[in-house]
Amino acid sequence: MKNLDNLINKALQLHKEGKLQDAINLYSDVLENKKNDTQLLFLIGTAYIQQGKIEEGIQELKKSISLEPENVFAHSNLGNALKDLKRYDEALVSYDEALRINPNLADIHNNRGSILKNLKKYNEALASYEKALQLNPDHAYTHNNKGNALKDLNRYEEAIASYNKALQLNPNYADAYNNKGNALKDLKLYFEALTNFDEAIKIKSNHFDAYNNRGIVFNEIKYYEKALDSFEKALQINPNYAFAYNNKGNTLKDLKRYGEALNSYDEAIKINSNFVEAYNNKGNILKDLKYYDEAISNYERVIKLKSDFDYILGKFLHTKMQVCSWNDFDLLSKKISKELKKNSKVIEPFFYLGLIDNPADAKLTSEIFVKDTISKPSKIQPIAKYSNHKKPRIGYYSADFCDHAVLHLMMDVFRNHNKSLFDIYGFSFGPDKNDKWRSEVKNYFFKFEDVNKISDKEVADLSRKLEIDIAIDLTAFTSNSRSGIFSYRAAPIQINYLGYPGTMGAEYIDYIIADEVIIPKNNFKYYSEKVLYLPDCYQANMSQKDVSKKEFKRSDFGLPDKAFVYCSFNNNYKITPNIFDIWMNILKKVPNSVLWIFKSNETATINLKRETVLRGVDPNRIIFASYLPNDEHLKRISLADLFLDTFPYNAHVTASDAIRMGIPIVTLAGNSFASRVGASILSCVGIKELITSSTKEYQELGIELAIKPNKLAMLKNRIKASASKSNLFDSNSFTKKLENIYLNLLKKN
């Protein structure tokens, strides 16, 4: 017996020295003579686990427990092993057994909390951590874990308090600094976050998570080179750090270094072939570069790996609409509508507009998106009404101060603003394309600020410093959106206008500018903003546009000379299978007719031709219009006979352009903002009989105007006469009416 005791002591010493296999061998030798010794089985199991042979360790621990069911430490170690294998439910059973035997073990309550956190049962995890702290209030590790659970519950201030307690107990706790930094990051307190990441790195120079997180913050505040440097340092420490490659890709994307970004995402995927975020981000770049087929492939991979990944279904469907791939349009649309009812993060607001005419769900989409992506900053001081300047200061905030539809519409407003009455400021957060449009528009502002490379908070702070009275968001949820600027309250009065045709669902946006056609009074409930009415069409327009002096013939564009030419010069994503059905029905009823639409990409062209055949129409009756400079495009519009509007996302600039060139528009007016733009434009020029209220009426009118040339000719003459006299293209009058809105707001507020 004494010899066995000596062997056990020797084995324990080897175990202590980390010579695990030697220890296991000795334990096993002794076990031959001490059959079913629960302690030896426990030690062998523990050593196996420490050696990384988890499954072997689990088997030995289970043997030990079968012989001694009340061994609390065997249950605890078994739980730890199962946790390492991510067998969380089984681990939870083991911890619960341990605590049944002895409920006063703080470490096990802590470990139990970690399991519950991994199972996303954050409130239960929090309860376990609090129980652990009742038993051992000075356990820094548990305070840190409690902070993590609170952070997951979005209780950021409480989380930070827990991290501070952990740091009070252990000032050299690098992970607590890192976690505190993440909480501050989520609160968008970026510079405080950076301080904490730096502290973590100071304590632990190889803390690759802290480097990675620091890089994320640098990226958020537009310090792109510093972000790249942080990601590189993380990857030097851990070359297999997929998250750092993914985040590096995000920064490279923001720098428009798309090829390098794609390479970074590929590196992340090489390390982790199931890295959902990397596939999603890769898809986003490919979509932006208009490599739609490749983007769709990456989104399909995301859906396969994680079907409920945030916003993926909406993004997937929108990208398929870019190539007119409609095989699962109805299925995906219904699924999106169903998920919205559950308040799921299923589709971005802009993508929803082209799917369904449902203003209630459009509002819900915006509210979900804002709540998810725009954190409500804490400690934002309200802005008192400014009194230090004589003239009101109006700020226009846009990503599109360039050759873009929004600037095409707004250019005359900026030009015509009464500079003796207002100081007009421009805040540009889009890329500087250095085109003639940007060069011109800068001359119309009292001050033009390029804020592309500073954070949302810094833009808001600059706006406050400049004492902007009214801030107008011209971008909202469209490309390069920076609506977070307004969450920091850039001005006492904040307005959503023009860029995004719908509600932003954000408490920080006070007003939306519309007209009585766009938002009837009975639709106010679908808007989080208060509605400001312009007396005519809400849409600004230039009084005059350059129209090419070239003489075009139909044959120049492949159009039959004697055919009736329908046109619809809208983006592909606005063409739904339902509206295409109607267009094809119209072509069937008007045999000598063609449909003239934009050629966006080759895949869309192929798909549209196929869809045409499926509907029993000769694909040669679809004529594709290639890109032309705007002045030439305007000139060629006049070759068409009738413009067929899209639904539920109506034409905007393209509709105004058609009217400008004397081409009638048949539109279908729905209930949402985007589906009533055509009606607003036609009402403004006094041609309301072209506004329909059902698909049947829309189709019948489209046919009627083709077979009744006299009626069409009369309408064309009326449009030509009305357009030149209507308020639609009277930009000077429009600007004055807009200014009256601003003055009335300043009086009221």
The CATH superfamily of the largest domain turns out to be Tetratricopeptide repeat domain
**Helix amount:** 55-70%
| Apparent shape | elongated
Average residue pLDDT = 93
CATH C-level class of the largest domain? Mainly Alpha
Please count the helical segments. 34
Largest sheet: 7 strands, parallel
Kindly report how far apart the N and C termini lie: 92 Å
Q: Any guess at the CATH architecture of the largest domain? A: Alpha Horseshoe
Number of strands: 13
Structural category is alpha/beta
Integer count of domains = 3
Which spans have pLDDT < 50 for at least 5 consecutive residues? none
Specify the oligomeric state: single chain
How large a portion of the residues is in β-strands, by DSSP E? 5-15%
In short:
With 749 residues, the protein is an alpha/beta fold.
Could you explain the architecture of this structure?
The radius of gyration is 32 Å and the shape is elongated. 56% of the residues lie in helices and 7% in strands. The longest helix is centred in the last third of the chain and has 18 residues, at 731-748. With 749 residues, it is α/β, with parallel strands linked by helices. Strands 3-2-1-4-5-6-7 form a seven-stranded parallel β-sheet, covered by helices on one side. The chain has a six-stranded parallel β-sheet with strand order 10-9-8-11-12-13, with helices on both faces. It folds into three domains: 2-237, Tetratricopeptide repeat domain (Serine Threonine Protein Phosphatase 5, Tetratricopeptide repeat), CATH 1.25.40.10; 393-533, Rossmann fold, CATH 3.40.50.11380; 554-729, Glycogen Phosphorylase B (Rossmann fold, 3-Layer(aba) Sandwich).
